Amino acid sequence: MSWIYLLIAGLFETIWATFLKLSNGFTHLNYTILTIVGMIISFYCLAKATVSLPLSLAYPIWTGIGAVGTVIIGVVLFGDKINPMTWVFVGVLLIGIVGIKITS
């Protein structure tokens, strides 16, 4: 169950970061509220995951899911232009996340 909590936490990190962008510096109330709700869910699930998973494992996976997810959201939803070399490093980040899980 801890891995499910960790996955949900990472996904909600991506969600709240997206709403943070859409809030336009907290000037749009609905997106600001969604940002805060997303943060609460993300942190709650991370806290639940760390009950039985080591912090040294859970935290980097949580931030990695959020980082990779926000790169993808930025490209797909916001039209961010990503340098091909950046995609290489996103791939390295994914390999690192998988490596942390495999070696835990």
Comma- or semicolon-separated keywords:
104 residues, mainly alpha, 4 helices, 0% strand, flat
**Biggest sheet record:** none
Share of residues in helices = over 70%
User: Roughly how many Å is the radius of gyration?
Assistant: 14 Å
Q: So what's the overall shape?
A: flat
How many β-strand runs?
Answer: 0
Distance N to C terminus: 16 Å
Number of H/I helices = 4
Tell me the count of domains.
Answer: 1
Overall pLDDT metric: 95
Helix/strand structural class: mainly alpha
| Topology order in helix (H) and strand (E) letters | HHHH
Low-confidence stretches: none
How much of the polypeptide forms β-strand, as a percent range? under 5%
InterPro entries: EmrE-like (IPR037185), Small_drug/metabolite_transptr (IPR000390), Small_multidrug_res (IPR045324)
Main location: membrane
Subcellular location: Cell membrane
Transmembrane segments: 27-47, 59-79, 85-103
Structure explained in plain terms:
The protein has 104 residues and is an all-alpha fold. It has one domain. The protein is 82% helix and 0% strand. It is built from 4 helices and no strands. The chain has helices at residues 2-22, 29-49, 55-78, 84-102. α3 packs antiparallel against α4. The longest helix has 24 residues, at 55-78. The chain starts with a helix and ends with a helix. The mean pLDDT is 95. It holds the Pfam family Multi_Drug_Res.
